[in-house]
């Protein structure tokens, strides 16, 4: 059985003081959660959140990582920097990074390799745009994105990471894939991993749904056999809402 993982992606929200207040409110609400709970925060919030969640069941994540260990990359953070700062998880290849900041499948792979080497757990995002789904390319696209991202990793390294299927057309739009659509596409991702790396690896990988999961739709989505959790955007910015997603089984 795969342990569900619910990760909040705060995006560019919350000052350090606001971040500390949010996780302070969140802690008692998710203290007995059966799912793994992660908050992926802006870089300036890392130390404040790390201090506030100490001793709790909340894990700390970052929203991006560079693929080089050091160098002339103004504004970037290396995997070693994040690791030493207390980060455990890192989002890689989010659709907004791809859309606005030139992220490619090749750089997603490089960032994944760097994160794993440093001991971070990647949350690798894959997903299609609306026009790609309408043209019938969803399955081929997510298979390609997934296998490129995993290239160069060992079986054990793949078992430990997380993949987030995020239909780009459902990010921040209020639209959501149906439970069956999300389950089907996540099943396609798992089948691609199975063909390349074997059933044992595919059965171990946790694959989240990242398309506007919220308190109203979480139970239906999480009832699907292939869906192992969610990468949560807007609903993660309010402790009561996020806790309802985390505690989907109650």
Q: What would you say about this model in short?
A:
Helix content is 44%, strand content 15%. By secondary structure, it is an alpha/beta fold. β1, α1 (16-29) and β2 form a beta-alpha-beta unit.
How are the secondary structure elements laid out?
Blueprint: E1 5-9, H1 16-29, E2 36-40, H2 46-53, E3 58-62, H3 79-84, E4 89-92, H4 95-101, H5 105-118, E5 121-126, H6 130-134, H7 138-150, H8 155-160, E6 162-165, H9 179-197, H10 199-204, E7 206-209, H11 218-222, E8 229-232, H12 239-246
Helix pairs in contact: 1-2, 1-12, 5-7, 7-9
Descriptive account of the structure:
With 250 residues, the chain is α/β, with parallel strands linked by helices. It has one domain (5-63, 73-246): Aldolase class I (TIM Barrel, Alpha-Beta Barrel). The protein is 44% helix and 15% strand. The chain has twelve helices and eight strands. The chain has an eight-stranded parallel beta sheet. Helix 3 links the parallel strand 3 and strand 4. The longest helix is centred in the C-terminal third of the chain and has 19 residues, at 179-197. It is globular. It starts with a strand and ends with a helix. 46% of the residues are buried.
């Amino acid at each position: 059985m795969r342990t569900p993982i619910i990760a909040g992606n705060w995006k560019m929200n919350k000052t350090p003081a606001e971040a500390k207040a949010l996780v302070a409110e969140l802690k008692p609400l998710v203290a007995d959660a059966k799912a793994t709970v992660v908050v992926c925060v802006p870089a300036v919030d890392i130390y404040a959140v790390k201090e506030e969640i100490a001793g709790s069941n909340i894990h700390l994540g970052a929203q991006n990582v560079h693929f080089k260990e050091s160098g002339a990359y103004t504004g970037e953070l290396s995997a070693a920097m994040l690791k030493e700062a207390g980060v455990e998880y890192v989002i890689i290849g989010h659709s907004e990074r791809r859309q606005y900041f030139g992220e490619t499948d090749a750089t997603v792979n490089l960032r994944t390799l760097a994160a794993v080497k440093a001991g971070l757990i990647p949350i690798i995002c894959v997903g299609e745009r609306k026009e790609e789904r309408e043209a019938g390319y969803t399955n081929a696209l997510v298979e390609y994105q997934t296998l490129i991202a995993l290239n160069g990793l060992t079986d054990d390294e793949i078992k430990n990471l997380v993949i987030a299927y995020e239909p780009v057309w459902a990010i921040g739009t209020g639209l959501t894939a149906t439970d069956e659509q999300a389950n089907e596409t996540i099943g396609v991702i798992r089948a691609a991993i199975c063909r390349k790396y074997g059933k044992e690896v595919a059965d171990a990988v946790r694959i989240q749904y990242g398309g506007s999961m919220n308190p109203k739709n979480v139970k239906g989505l999480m009832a699907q056999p292939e869906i192992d959790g969610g990468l949560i955007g807007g609903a993660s910015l309010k402790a009561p809402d996020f806790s309802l997603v985390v505690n989907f089984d109650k």
